[in-house]
Specification:
This protein has 202 residues and is an alpha/beta fold. The chain has one domain: P-loop containing nucleotide triphosphate hydrolases (Rossmann fold, 3-Layer(aba) Sandwich), CATH 3.40.50.300. Helix content is 43%, strand content 13%. The protein has 8 helices and 5 strands; from the N terminus they run H-E-H-E-H-H-E-H-E-H-H-E-H. The chain has a 5-stranded parallel beta sheet, sandwiched between helices. It is globular. It starts with 17 loop residues before the first helix and ends with a helix. 33% of the residues are buried. The model has no long low-confidence stretch (mean pLDDT 97). The structure holds 3'-phosphate-adenosine-5'-phosphate sulfate (PPS) and magnesium ion. Magnesium ion binds next to helix 2. Belongs to the APS kinase family. One of its GO terms (molecular function) is adenylylsulfate kinase activity. Pathway: Sulfur metabolism; hydrogen sulfide biosynthesis; sulfite from sulfate: step 2/3.
Amino acid sequence: MTTKATNIHPVFDRILGREDKEGILNQNSKVIWMTGLSGSGKTTIAIGLEKELQKRGFLTQILDGDNIRTGINKNLGFSEEDRTENIRRIAEVSKLFLNCGVITINCFVSPTIDIRDVAKEIVGKEDFLEVYVNASYKVCEERDVKGLYKKARNGEIKNFTGLDSPFEAPENPFLEIKTSEMTPVESVEKVIEAILPRLIRN
Ligand code: PPS
Ligand code: MG
C-alpha cells in the first residue's frame, strides 16, 4: 500500500489558462461522453465523429475504454470499484484535455448513474455532453461484434454489463442515439448537428 502524499502545493492559477488555449485552437473544448452497452456503437460513432470534426478544423482526442484499459488503466477490471476508478481517472484525463482546449470524444460503458456522476462532477456539468448510445441488450447480443456476449452467456466473462452487472440508462442525456434505428453515418450526423454549436467559438 502507498501512503497518500502530503505537502502538495498546486499551481493551477499560475499556468496558462483554458481560454488562451481554446483561442489558439479557435474552438470551445468539451467532453463528449458516450455511454451505452458493449457493442452499442460508441466506438463506431466516435471514429466517424472525429473524422467529421477534423474536416471542420476541430482538434479532438478519442478516449476509448478498450484502448485506455491497455494503458493507463491496465490494472483495472470490471468490479463496481474498478469501473468507478476507471471512470474517475478518465474524467481527470478529460479535464486535462479540456484545459488544453481539446475536445475529447469518450467511449465508456460507464454503466451507472453514480459512475457518470463521478465523471460529470470532475469534468464540470457545463462541459459534459452526455450521449446515450442506445441499443438493447438483445440487439447488442445479436451483433456480438467481439464475441463477448457469447462468452458472457457461457460464463467465461463475469460482471458483464447488462447480464450480471447493471446498466442504468441516463435519465436526461444531452442526446440519445438509437443505433438500431439509424446507420452509423446517420448517427454521426445527428451528433454533429447537436454538438457543433457548442464547439464553435464566437
Ligand atoms: S466501464 O464499465 O466504463 O468501466 O467499461 P469500459 O472501460 O468502457 O470498457 C468496456 C470494454 O471492455 C470490454 N469488456 C467488457 N465490457 C463490459 N463488461 C465486461 N465485463 C467486459 N469485459 C470486457 C468490451 O470490449 C468493452 O468495450 P465496448 O466498446 O463497450 O464493447
Ligand atoms: Mg468500443
